[in-house]
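mind reviewing both lines:
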Amino acid sequence: MPITLVTRDISASGVYFLAPRDIEPGTAVELEVVLVERPLGLGSVQMSTSAHIVRREQTDMPGWRGYGAKFDDFSLQRDDGIPKTASRHYTL
């Protein structure tokens, strides 16, 4: 069942996030992270990843815990393509 997470830090090798449930270290997870979100598809980038939990921490938010996850694999989806009618080609 999908749940909403709060991302606190992200790098090329992993992510630190807050979640409203208990996840054991070593658990495999699938994450979707919106990196850039602009209206009308003008530059949105979303990352889909397989990862595993490497650490769990208490937080100051009741019912939430902090998790460090290491990426096993990821892909990026972009929707910032320029319409063909607006593209220009230049030769230098």
